[in-house]
DNA sequence: TTGAAAGCGCTACCAT
DNA sequence: ATGGTAGCGCTTTCAA
């Protein structure tokens, strides 16, 4: 069987208390015995049980990451940033895809509690505030990503999506577009809401007309469908999509209809995921610092865990506009 | 504080042994006490500590998933399949991106052992055989994905990549291509090796000439670079890339050089990740059942865990050719 | 059908 | 500087 502290205590002739001390660098230990113990550990190939350690009151060094779908380029990149940050500091991350389904989220939350995660990062948009507060009351550290809850003292790292929406609008406006369609995610999602408000804000006071898709959605298919409806209904010269997947859908809808991008119609995406780079024409998009978003969120969380307090800071990262091939001035009409 | 079995034992007037039994549905318990206990559990909001349970000899219900990079469309989709399979059966998955770096892999393997994962799926191509055998000797269940180790009794689920390579070659050959370039991943990776052999095999006995990229690589950049070199050196009419990312790079290299796909050059990818669908022209590619690959691997692993034996089965999934827009007959030369 | 008690492997407090 | 020991919360014989 695997060696335990007892084995190494026996082998060294010291007590398990001493072994534990050298293991954790706590208390005072003479150089001599420390050496002895370290040797025995080496010899016996001893490895500390994180489980026992956790049960005895230490951390599990594992954090749970709730996100809508790991198989979504945006969240895959976020997750990578999160994982790297965690790895640097000896933590691991448990990925939980909720598919925007409340019951999956609840179920995951439950397991994460059972498994005594040291902390949680919540990157799904809709966890009820009470749930979060209950969790925090139980001592679970929580950090929100791309979301904040007004008045609740929960640390969060976000991108300034209001600004991001503005950037998109300003770009289109400055190209001369005056009839712009918006393909949105559900506005109940905080980030989508902010993007929308930012966009609106930038158009305010101009003579531009904004048309918002009646329905909302997430993936490529949805983008294509919503763009189709929009195009059938309004004479827009530009379409803004609240994420790159929707924008890719828009591009596909255009192709199907023989609409040239950007000559006939300009398209702007949001996120700057891998998709926006490889599509043709390459998408003009508002870049979120996605990887960094994941990193910072997890660092904030680990800081809280290690200082034994609930993170309360709010970090805001800046978006930036990336102009590629999908935008141009509107076509000249007779 | 959180309630423990002691609390609910006290509240019910039974022993903790009894509580444990109703919790686990073991032993015989009268309906009456079971009800009482269940009630108390409800009232006190009791939740079993997975940590304590694991220490006392049960499973952790957590598995580790070693892969090169979660932020890679292929592995993100695999991970999703894995996560879904795990979720269905009450397991969680710890994502470990190794970046093909041996020391990261070793480091992760160590942590996973400390944390007493119930099992591991190894989807990185290069873990030394001895390491795997050591792990298995320690009682860690392991399943390999897209890889197998001849002679070692390790369960695995793979795609028939030899067949996949053939499919790609046959398609190109049947279109009439006779000078074909191959942009490969390092052949030390089992799947790449199989693809290559399959491709070769299909070309054997025909008058086709194959040119293999001297260097190998992984991402889009590499694909573009290797395609550039290939195109400069050989007069090929088709390029096959061992994964879709490489193929996307090939497409970019073509665009830069004004080479039309598929009119001037046909391009075939491998994997059928999201990338191959959204690129222009849409990529003809060999589809791996990616999501299914993740699912099956994890199910195989969980079966082993629950039957308390190291999985030994070898499952093979079938690839299939998906013809899209990037392939056509070779151009007619004078 | 139920319970007492001995662990699981480690931490931390209190003595020495 | 070192050790004894009481937990941490649960599982699992073995008795009753």
TrEMBL record, chains A, B:
Top-level taxonomic group: Bacteria
Swiss-Prot/TrEMBL keywords: DNA-binding, Transcription, Transcription regulation
Pfam families xrefs: LacI, Peripla_BP_3
InterPro entries in UniProt: HTH_LacI (IPR000843), LacI/GalR-like_sensor (IPR046335), Lambda_DNA-bd_dom_sf (IPR010982), Peripla_BP_I (IPR028082)
Coiled coil residues, start to end: none
HTH lacI-type domain span: 3-57
Protein name as catalogued: LacI family transcriptional regulator
Organism name: Polycladomyces subterraneus
Taxonomic placement: Bacteria, Bacillati, Bacillota, Bacilli, Bacillales
């Amino acid at each position: 069987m695997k060696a335990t502290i007892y084995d190494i205590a026996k082998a060294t002739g010291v007590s398990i208390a001493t072994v534990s001390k050298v293991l954790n660098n706590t208390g005072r230990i003479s150089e001599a015995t420390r050496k002895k113990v370290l040797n025995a550990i080496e010899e016996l190939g001893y490895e500390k049980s994180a489980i026992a350690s956790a049960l005895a009151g230490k951390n599990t060094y594992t954090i749970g990451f709730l996100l809508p779908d790991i198989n979504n380029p945006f969240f895959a990149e976020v997750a990578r940033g999160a994982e790297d940050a965690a790895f640097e500091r000896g933590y691991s991350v448990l990925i939980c895809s909720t598919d925007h389904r409340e019951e999956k989220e609840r179920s995951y939350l439950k397991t994460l509690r059972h498994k005594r995660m040291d902390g949680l990062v919540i990157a799904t948009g809709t966890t009820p505030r009470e749930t979060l507060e209950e969790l925090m009351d139980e001592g679970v550290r929580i950090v929100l990503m791309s979301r904040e809850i007004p008045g609740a003292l929960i640390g969060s790292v976000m991108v300034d999506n209001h600004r991001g929406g503005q950037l998109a609008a300003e770009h289109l406006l400055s190209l001369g577009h005056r009839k712009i369609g918006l393909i949105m995610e559900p506005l109940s999602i905080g980030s989508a809401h902010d993007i929308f408000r930012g966009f609106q804000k930038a158009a305010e006071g101009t003579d531009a007309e904004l048309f918002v898709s009646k329905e909302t959605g997430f993936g490529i298919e949805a983008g294509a469908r919503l763009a189709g409806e929009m195009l059938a209904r309004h004479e827009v010269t530009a379409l803004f999509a609240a994420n790159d997947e929707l924008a890719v859908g828009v591009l596909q809808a255009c192709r199907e209809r023989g609409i040239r991008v950007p000559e006939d119609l300009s398209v702007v995406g949001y996120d700057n995921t891998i998709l926006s780079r490889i599509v043709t024409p390459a998408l003009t998009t508002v870049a979120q610092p996605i990887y960094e978003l994941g990193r910072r969120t997890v660092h904030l969380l680990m800081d809280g865990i290690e200082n034994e307090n609930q993170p309360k800071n709010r970090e805001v990262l800046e978006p930036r506009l990336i102009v590629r091939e999908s935008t141009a001035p509107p076509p000249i009409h007779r």
